[in-house]
Amino acid sequence: MLRTTLAHGLFLLTTAALAQVPTVPVEFPPEAQAVSAQALQAALTGKEFHVPLADGSWWRLQFQPGGIWAITTNRGHKNDGTWRVEGSQMCSEPKKGRASCNDMRLLGDTLYLKRDSGEVVKFEQR
């Protein structure tokens, strides 16, 4: 009886712990479309975005004309660098960190980006 109760208790704890793990989206919304370089450039230039992440943190991204960007996170991280568009990818070269190019898709007026980690995030315009 004690063994059954202990096993049931462990099962409930494991189930509760798994329920708290955030689901990380790794696919673009099915209706999201690749965007032309010209449209992507226009959608980013001069804009500021709030980008929520699956782990509960967020980024604030600013894309300035002339190819300068800046990031601030709710965890106190700040960085900046240069950005450019290549096809339907946004490429960035941060002052701290490594350069990368990330696929972006558009659904209505909303941009989505696939991070280097594989997570797909939504750009909420501010």
Would you give an account of this structure?
The chain is an alpha+beta fold and 126 residues long. It has a single domain (27-125), classed as Beta Barrel (Lipocalin), CATH 2.40.128.640. Helices cover 21% and strands 44% of the residues. The protein contains 2 helices and 9 strands; from the N terminus they run αβαββββββββ. The chain has helices spanning 2-19, 37-44, and strands at 33-34, 47-52, 58-64, 68-73, 78-86, 89-94, 100-107, 110-114, 120-125. It has an 8-stranded antiparallel β-barrel with strand order 2-3-4-5-6-7-8-9.
Task: Put the structure in a nutshell.
By secondary structure, the chain is an alpha+beta fold. It has one domain (27-125): Lipocalin (Beta Barrel), CATH 2.40.128.640.
Catalogue the unreliable spans.
Answer: 9-18
Which strand-content bin applies to the residues? Answer: 35-45%
Count of domain modules:
1
| Structural class by secondary-structure content | alpha+beta
Indicate the CATH architecture: Beta Barrel
The first-to-last residue Cα distance is: 58 Å
Please write the string of helix (H) and strand (E) elements: HEHEEEEEEEE
Which radius of gyration do the C-alpha atoms yield?
19 Å
The shape is: globular
List the helices and strands and how they pair.
Elements: H1 2-19, E1 33-34, H2 37-44, E2 47-52, E3 58-64, E4 68-73, E5 78-86, E6 89-94, E7 100-107, E8 110-114, E9 120-125
Antiparallel strand pairs: 1-7, 2-3, 2-9, 3-4, 4-5, 5-6, 6-7, 7-8, 8-9
